[in-house]
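We emphasize that the prediction below concerns an isolated chain of 207 residues; any contacts that depend on oligomerization or on bound cofactors are therefore not represented. The input was used exactly as deposited, without trimming of termini.
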Amino acid sequence: MDRYLLNIGFKGERSYIQGADMLDRAMQVIRQHQLIEIRDIEFIIQRMTHQNLQLEIERATDARKVAADDIAVIKFTVGEERLLARITTASGSPQVRVPYDESPVTRHCQIDSVSRSIRLAEDSSGHSSIERLVSMNKALHLAVLEKPADTQWVFCRWDSPKWPLPEDLNHATIILRQTLGSRLTRADVMLNDCQLGQIYFSAKPAS
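Result of the prediction step, given as a token string:
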């Protein structure tokens, strides 16, 4: 089984590896080794970590259970084959910390508390597409939902019919569809009346 080291540093003041970075870097590696269309992506974060990460790709099976060392998993389809990418820890911790400011995204957003939605009016932050969507969804959660004081909203899952996401997210809209208390939320991500995917958050103890 091939193993690929994911070179990911810490973002801003975070003491954990950001979920958007896991997905971005893992999909970059997958695309380098899968030269045809990648579709039906399911990315699920099992737990947070401050360690280095590596990626393993195997055939997906219905019998496969979550392994104790899984940090995150990505299921995806290439051709007619369903594959599974496991993100697990590697030795050591990242030595790089990158400045990270979400305000270039959030200050250009318009929130509608009645419809529980957020719209990106102008897209000029320079962040990756999934980073922008995570920032938007976090801003929406903070504006319209309550949570325990000692928790924070974190990105925990992404589903989409294809990858990569569009680079231009001008006028992208996220609409909160379902909340299970603070345990899990589900929101639709829309662009030009088409659904890009669904994004999930949960409230985790603040780190």
